[in-house]
Amino acid sequence: MFTRNWKHLCRRYSQAVTFRTSEIYPAQHNENQIGFFYTIKPDLCKQLFNHGGLPKSFMKQTKTFTETAIMVRQPALDVMDCIRASDMNKPVIRYVLYGEKGSGKSLTLAHLLHYALEEGYLILHVPWVSEWLRRTPRHKEMTNSQTKEGFVDLPLDAAEWLLHFKTQNQALLKNCEFKISKDYEWSKREKTEAGSPIAALVEHGINRVKYACDVIDALLLEIKILSNSKQCKTFVAIDGFNSFYYPMTRLNTPTKKKIKPEEVTLTNSFLELTKNDWNNGVVVLTIDQLAVPDENQESFLPRYLLYKKGFEHLDPFVPIEVGRYTDKEFLSCANYYRDRLWLRGPSDLETELKFTSASNPYNFMLQCAPL
Amino acid sequence: MSNVLIFFYRRLKNSSFNSFTRTLSKLQIRNYAKATSFPDYYQNPIFRKEDQVKLIADSDLKNRATVPVKPPTVSETSSVYFDPLVNKVINHVMEKGNKRLARQLVEKAFENIKRKQIERYHLASTPEEKAKIELNPKDILYKAVENCKPLLQLQPIKRGGITYQVPGPITEKRSLFLAIKWLLETTDEKERTVHFPEQFAWELLEASNNTGKVVKRKQDLHRQCEANRAYAHYRWQ
């Protein structure tokens, strides 16, 4: 019985070198560390991903492994290199991450979010668009928009997003004073003056859920103005962007009329944000087959998932493919799973699993589960 | 580990016309209780790599090559993960031939076992405690089944108008069958909101620990056998 402990120690020592990297700052990740796992500190993890951002199956794994570890992969490094090389005075560049189901797009986005946080960007992160448009619990809170005719508001989702924004950017909002440029009048008695900090606007949106969607509109406008005037650099990350362009949502008005995405105020706010009419920022989007129903999941490529409208809206963009694991990455992942006691057995297992999972990260994780 | 039906048959050796000899009766081990679409002289497939290597080493290959062979089923693979006991449990879980669902349920149960055990492992403070925790779900299954196998069974025997429950021996295969059947029966007595994999994982963990309902049932049976010891001679009367 003690032999296992001894073997465990030996294994840890010999393999600690081959699948982990001690570099915890994404800005310093480079090609030498491709395929290695780096851990994110728990409080940072909570700050960034408390309201979403990491896939649910990954959250379960973090609980079992008692740590959040992300693999450093080529697509994330490519985006970071591009960001470093780009000129911030020019209009924003839109990066689109695409790939098959389970190839690691959301986790790449998480890696980039960490990078953005370390580099001091103001983060605007939508964890999963389909949560707003396609997730309908028994009663979805929807109201008709007061300010825009014929549009639908999602007040609770908007308030939750504002809270998410506040948690992610709490350091930046505390230290830097970002002032609003004009007055916003919400009702006869409620008004946000020009010159008050952005944090006040966000607070108002969280407290007064009724105006949350309008607050988001105002907030995004203000952030664009701030970026243009070089007061802050912005990082926009949206997961499941193609959901905005799918012809239908799962939302119904009380009169059972189906709502299209463009009739939702949140859609329009974020589509305005992803236009390239502002500078001093980065926009990273993910398009995913899982954001749309099964009948429309024939391909994972941008032109198919974004439809004509989305493609034209985003054109020109930088497409970045997130592919399956390479041999090195696969071995590294297998070693990590062994270290975390998730996988056990002889080493022939790896060749077999590589074949049956086709080196797809998610499939590999699923197939290691009962072993 | 498999259901064994021992078959005696005579087979004509493939020899020349003049030497007409009768071979010895051979033992044919069948994996299935009922007749299959293959005639009885078809031999069972040898699909494990180690068994094939042994066959070549023992140079038994020549005799085997002449006899037709049944095809292996879809689940009989030479994969590293193939395990006859796990396959048997999946078969017992299966309903209406839906093997895919049965396999998913058992795999999910293994995943649940693994997560629970890893949690316990991380909560254990000393290396000795950590070493005691079994992390491989397959080993837990083996241990659980081992702990649930009864050593005796009660047979109803009628003497003078009264049916007595007489303790008697039990074969290995029946013992295994009862162990798996009891495990699944106790899992079925679950609450409506609890899913099968979770409950099955819980039962397996308890059984491997020698606690829980199934082990209690086995012990009750043993106690009954002990109590009815006096009637044991009825088997031969």
From TrEMBL, chain A:
Keywords: Mitochondrion, Ribonucleoprotein, Ribosomal protein, Transit peptide. It is found in: Mitochondrion. GO terms for cellular component: mitochondrial small ribosomal subunit. InterPro entries: Ribosomal_mS29, Ribosomal_mS29_met. GO terms for biological process: apoptotic process. The keyword Ribonucleoprotein applies. It holds the Pfam family DAP3. One of its GO terms (molecular function) is structural constituent of ribosome. Its main location: mitochondrion. Belongs to the mitochondrion-specific ribosomal protein mS29 family. This is Small ribosomal subunit protein mS29. It comes from Bombyx mandarina.
From TrEMBL, chain B:
Belongs to the universal ribosomal protein uS7 family. Keywords: Ribonucleoprotein, Ribosomal protein. This is 28S ribosomal protein S7, mitochondrial. Residues 72-229 form the Small ribosomal subunit protein uS7 domain. Gene3D superfamilies: Ribosomal protein S7 domain. One of its GO terms (cellular component) is ribonucleoprotein complex. The keyword Ribonucleoprotein applies. InterPro entries: Ribosomal_uS7, Ribosomal_uS7_dom, Ribosomal_uS7_dom_sf. The keyword Transmembrane helix does not apply. Pfam families: Ribosomal_S7. GO terms for biological process: translation.
